[in-house]
Design a protein that fits this description.
15 strands, mainly beta, 1 helix, nine-stranded antiparallel β-sheet, about 290 residues, Porin, two-stranded antiparallel sheet
Length: about 290
């Protein structure tokens, strides 16, 4: 795979106060009810500097509430990459090309805790827009949204997760990188990592252009820092958005223990696959750091 560097604009929204470096660009977090979005197409250094200058001005102004726009640019790439989708033992489709895109990401966070939430919401919505004017050899929209809700019921927390993504259209050869995948400790725990959706003959995941994941979980205290959990996961990945069918979701149910550390839980769980297919394992142990969602 060869990579040629270019700039793509990424307006970002966030809540809280912190500084971080993520994927080679600055993402700034602000007090509650404040939002961030992009202003200009500028080098990363000047964007980061301008962001902090504007932020300091806002703090010194003493205004408790203000809609505030902060520039941010993502250091992204056009990719040239071969990906094979094997339809049969003697036939395959090859995905190859250039992709240039702009990305808009919106984030909302009303959780009472980042590591062990008991109430609140967390959501994101992302749109990736590829256009020939940006260096792409195809035009497409990549849409992805997720919503996580946490509801306390006495000592029990009902945690819910909903994730949906799609690239509209019937052409299966639009996405190069960042294809949708599911299966594993944070999506559908009864399956191996990225085991759902299109696979090569060797069993390697190539992802798809549509995904749906639903999670329901009950979290409850057992003894001191030890907690338990019961969960149901469902999800799948499809080659194109036109194939997306919620009746085709693969499911697993399970139980687990979580030992709480200051940075989050250490999870040991067992998940059973609902209606396993021939050749599939009936269940698996899952070891994870942090909640699944």
């Amino acid at each position: 795979m060869t990579k040629r560097r270019f700039w793509s604009l990424r307006p970002s929204t966030a809540r809280g106060v912190a500084d971080a470096i993520w994927a080679n660009f600055l993402l700034h977090w602000f007090p509650a009810r404040m939002r961030a979005a992009s202003l200009a197409w500028l080098p990363t250094f000047w964007l980061g500097t301008a962001s902090w200058v504007l932020f300091v001005i806002l703090l010194l102004s003493g205004l408790p509430l203000m809609v505030f726009y902060v520039p941010s640019v993502e250091d992204a790439y056009r990719s040239v990459k071969d990906i094979e989708y094997v339809e049969s033992a003697d036939a395959s489709l090859v995905l190859r090309g250039d992709r240039g895109f702009a990305t808009l990401a919106l984030i909302g966070d009303e959780r009472n805790s980042l590591t062990d939430p008991r109430r609140g919401l967390f959501w994101t919505a992302t749109v990736e827009l590829a256009r020939t004017a940006l260096g792409s050899d195809v035009d497409y929209h990549r849409l992805y949204g997720q919503l996580f809700a946490y509801l306390p019921i006495g000592p029990v927390v009902w945690a819910q997760g909903y994730r949906l993504g799609a690239v509209p259209g019937s052409n299966p050869l639009l996405l190069l990188d960042n294809r949708f995948r599911a299966g594993g400790p944070t999506t559908v725990r009864g399956f191996e990592q990225n085991a759902l959706g299109p696979q090569t003959v060797e069993g390697d995941s190539i992802g798809g252009q549509a995904v749906a994941v639903v999670n329901q979980e009950l979290r409850f205290p057992l003894w001191k820092r030890l907690k338990g959990g019961l969960f149901w996961d469902a999800g799948n990945v499809w080659l194109t958005s036109k194939e997306l069918d919620l009746a085709d979701l693969r499911q697993s149910v399970g139980v687990g223990l979580r030992y709480m550390f200051p940075f989050g839980p250490l999870r040991l769980e067992y998940a059973w696959v609902v209606n396993p297919r021939p050749g599939e394992a009936k269940g698996r142990f899952v070891l994870g750091l942090g909640h699944a969602f």
